């Protein structure tokens, strides 16, 4: 079983910055891809950014050039540095991770979500 614990959300003014963190803990063989998703009120959950275990990244067009995803494999932690925040970035941000169990099965897990509010 793997748990993800997120931190770093909060209230920020437009143009400001926030850094989200997500740490994986529990019993697993390895953590594979990790990513951030968000869900704004009344909207579907959408991809923000993903990163493979080797460091390859992928971003939603709406955040390219403003957000940076990174990870520390030794700490099983993924980060999302968010700069130049806009009111439309307001959402609950969820961490996601794929992992391999000790019996070679692939599983996915979600964090509980952290609220990011950007005021205009």
In short:
With 120 residues, the protein is an all-beta fold. It contains no helices and eleven strands.
Descriptive keywords:
mainly beta; four-stranded antiparallel sheet; elongated; seven-stranded mixed sheet; 0% helix; 11 strands; 59% strand; 120 residues
Task: Describe the protein.
By secondary structure, the chain is mostly beta strands. It contains no helices and eleven strands. 0% of the residues lie in helices and 59% in strands. Strand 5 and strand 6 (57-59) form a beta hairpin. The model has no long low-confidence stretch (mean pLDDT 97).
Overall structural class, as computed from helix and strand content, comes to mainly beta
Give me the count of strands: 11
C-alpha termini separation = 40 Å
Net shape: elongated
Q: In which range does the helix fraction lie?
A: under 10%
Our estimate of the beta-strand percent is over 45%
Q: Write down the secondary-structure element order.
A: EEEEEEEEEEE
Q: Which regions have little confidence, pLDDT < 50, spanning 5+ residues? A: none
Write the layout of secondary structure elements.
Blueprint: E1 2-7, E2 10-13, E3 18-26, E4 30-39, E5 46-51, E6 57-59, E7 67-72, E8 77-82, E9 91-100, E10 106-110, E11 114-119
Parallel strand pairs: 2-11
Antiparallel strand pairs: 1-3, 3-8, 4-5, 4-9, 5-6, 7-8, 9-10, 9-11
């Amino acid at each position: 079983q793997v748990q993800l614990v997120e931190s770093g959300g909060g209230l920020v003014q437009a143009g400001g910055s926030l850094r989200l963190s997500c740490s994986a803990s529990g019993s697993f063989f390895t953590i594979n891809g990790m990513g951030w998703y968000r869900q704004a009120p009344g909207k579907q959950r959408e991809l923000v950014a993903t990163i493979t275990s080797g460091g390859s990244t992928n971003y939603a067009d709406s955040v390219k050039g403003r957000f940076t995803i990174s990870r520390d494999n030794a700490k099983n932690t993924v980060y999302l540095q968010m700069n130049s925040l806009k009111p439309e970035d307001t959402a609950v941000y969820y961490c996601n991770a794929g992992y391999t169990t000790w019996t070679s099965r692939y599983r996915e897990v979600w964090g509980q979500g952290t609220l990011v509010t950007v005021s205009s």
